Automatic annotation (TrEMBL):
Lineage: superkingdom: Bacteria
Protein name per its UniProtKB record: 2-isopropylmalate synthase
Assigned EC number: 2.3.3.13
PANTHER family documented for this protein: 2-ISOPROPYLMALATE SYNTHASE 1, CHLOROPLASTIC-RELATED, HOMOCITRATE SYNTHASE-RELATED
Length: 390
């Protein structure tokens, strides 16, 4: 049975760029956009054109440059925002306007001092106006995660009727639990008239560390687009991480879901975004962190040397990492030492290994990590007969 394709909507250049202190200039944005296009993302959210002349120019330049992906611009449910976004996107091969408004009681009361009916009217007016410029209009119900499902369904039904092609259900504050978010998507699928005319989209924030889990719960329950960023960067604790959702779907064939992402470019893309944004990736970050394929305990190293799959669920080459690394520390065993010693040019006999291992442990107790250079030194200073090393 062929797998359902989940659209990957990358918002590194919009929600991702909202990280404090991580401004990108236009050239940097263009390089990243080109890479996202080669990576195989389906939609690139290039920016929020009305927010500044610089953002407008970046969105316009990205729209001209991108060859395959849809290029999208964010707006509020405000006429001028929509006009400015349409102008910035006019050279895009496939343009999309992403418009919307807050739908939770908190947003309706505190942000808009309004009421539910008036919010629906504004939502419909925004989508209808955006439709006069482009065919592809995505609607976001901001703070949908905390919006009452019945009202959310009313909003969705009204905007689908007005022509929305995609319904974005953001968990703006990262509050939902996976079951709750999944149930919300299911409820909308079952209760919004005309839902078959639109794609449901997950846009999850990571305030409780649940962005990835929530997005996956969303697609299991029928959403077919995930909004995400490289390295999971974004407002506050960040957005859903692109590399995580892509690899979850790929590593779990039972989900019967896949994406068009060329996963071999993931590691390199992560490095590129991290360097351009000056934002380090935490070493234990899933898929792309420096330690994602590093093994340091003796038991694990022994297993991985015998067969990589004992402790790795992803072949590092599938995400563009050249090889698993065996990191030598005081917790490493003889198997790991022999393995690395061989890589740097020493095939040790069992007796030699026993001797070198004692020297190695003394060294490793002082140093956090024993590097290849250190292995030369340890072997050279061990009291073993170097001549007999084959
Ligand atoms: O988190 C959010 O609700 C958003 C919307 C503007 C789509 O980023
Ligand atoms: Zn967001």
């Amino acid at each position: 049975m062929s797998k359902d394709i989940v659209q990957i909507f990358d918002t590194t250049l919009r929600d991702g760029e909202q990280v404090p202190g991580c401004k990108l200039d236009r050239e940097q944005k263009l390089v990243i956009a080109e890479r996202l296009d080669s990576l195989g993302v389906n939609i690139i959210e290039a920016g929020f054109p009305v927010s500044s002349p610089g953002d407008f120019q970046s969105v316009e330049a990205i729209a001209k440059l991108v060859k395959n992906a849809t290029v999208c611009g964010l707006t509020r449910a405000v006429k001028n925002d929509i006009e400015v976004a349409a102008e910035a996107l006019k050279h895009a091969k496939i343009p999309r306007i992403h418009t919307g408004i807050g739908t939770s009681d908190s947003h309706i009361k505190h942000k808009f001092n309004s009421n539910r009916d008036a919010i629906i009217e504004r939502a419909v007016a925004a989508v209808s106006y955006a439709k006069t410029f482009v065919e592809d209009v995505e609607f976001y119900a901001e703070d949908a995660g905390r919006t009452d499902n019945e009202f959310l369904a009313r909003v969705c039904e009204a905007v689908v009727k007005a022509g929305a092609t995609v319904l974005n259900i953001p968990d703006t504050t990262g509050y939902c639990l996976p079951d709750e978010y999944g149930a919300k998507i299911k409820y909308l699928r079952e209760n919004v008239k005309g839902i078959d005319k639109a794609t449901l989209s997950c846009h999850c924030h990571n305030d409780l560390g649940l962005a990835t889990a929530n997005s996956i719960a969303g697609v299991i329950n029928g959403a077919r687009q995930i909004e995400c960023t490289i390295n999971g960067i974004g407002e506050r604790a960040g957005n859903t991480s692109l590399e995580e959702v892509v690899m979850i779907m790929r590593q779990h064939p039972g989900l019967n879901l896949d994406t068009t992402i060329n996963s071999k470019l993931l590691y390199d893309t992560s490095l590129m975004v991290s360097r351009k944004m000056g934002m380090m990736v935490q070493p234990n970050k899933a898929i792309v962190g420096a330690n994602a394929f590093a093994h340091s305990s003796g038991i694990h190293q022994d297993g991985v040397i015998k067969n990589r799959e004992t402790y790795e669920i992803i072949d590092p080459a599938d995400v563009g990492v050249t090889e698993s690394s065996i990191v030598l520390t005081a917790r490493s065993g003889r198997a790991a030492l022999a393995y690395r010693a061989k890589i740097v040019g020493y095939e040790l006999t069992k007796t030699q290994l026993d001797q070198v291992y004692q020297e190695f442990l003394k060294y490793a107790d002082v140093k956090k990590e024993v590097k290849d250079d250190d292995i030369h030194q340890i072997i050279e200073t061990s009291k073993i007969d170097l001549q007999s090393i084959s």
